[in-house]
Amino acid sequence: QVQLVESGGGLVQAGDSLRLSCAASGRTINNFITAWFRQAPGKERGFVGAVHWSGATTYIPDSVKGRFTIDRDRPKNTIYLQMDNLIPEDTAVYYCAADSTSSYIEVVPRTYEYWGQGTQVTVSS
């Protein structure tokens, strides 16, 4: 089993930055794909980026490219979501997820086995 714990959310103003963390425990996540999703009230959970742990390949969708980046700290078993120039539309609960079964990055939530509890990000205008 893998436990994922997100942290770093909060209330910020438009234009600010936040750095979310996702700490994994329980087993090594070498060869896992670890992703970030977000879900706003009344909307579906959407993909905002992922990193393939072993190959350090990352994928950021066009919707947040240029503002969001993902990186990892292997010794700490932690991945990060750096969010810059935040806008009110970024307001959502942000979730970390991990997948041990795919060999390439998936953007569909149902492919991910493990999920964190989520961290709230609120961006005021």
Task: Give structural notes.
- The structure is a single chain.
- With 125 residues, the protein is an all-beta fold.
- It is built from no helices and eleven strands.
- It has strands spanning 3-7, 10-13, 18-25, 33-39, 46-52, 57-59, 68-73, 78-83, 92-99, 114-115, 119-124.
- Strands 2, 4, 5, 6, 9, 10 and 11 form a seven-stranded mixed sheet that branches. A four-stranded antiparallel sheet has the order 1-3-8-7, with no helix packed on it.
- The chain starts with a strand and ends with a strand.
- 32% of the residues are buried.
Q: Which range does the strand content fall in?
A: over 45%
Characterize the biggest β-sheet: 7 strands, mixed
Radius of gyration: 13 Å
Helix content: under 10%
Name the helix and strand elements from N-terminus to C-terminus, one letter apiece: EEEEEEEEEEE
- Supply the helix-strand structural class: mainly beta
